[in-house]
Design goal:
With 86 residues, the chain is mainly β. It is built from no helices and seven strands.
Amino acid sequence: MWECQLEKGTWQVTVCIGDAAHQQSGQNVTVEGVSAIVDRTTAAGRFLEATVSVTVDDGRLTIELGPQQPGHNTCINWLQISRSQL
């Protein structure tokens, strides 16, 4: 689990997964309980981006990777967090 302090409100979170050198299988990313990436495989040198809109109520943005089991390896390259424009 990874957390970052943020003001309460609605946020857009974009995450990029993948590995430059290896295929990665079973990648999963959840942001504030919202599934952003579910059981995705990326080939070596290929990357996948996903964006979700989430509400932060407790002042902390929470990102979870998983499941933590053999054959599942989520590689986050970067993420971008921006205030949602409603």
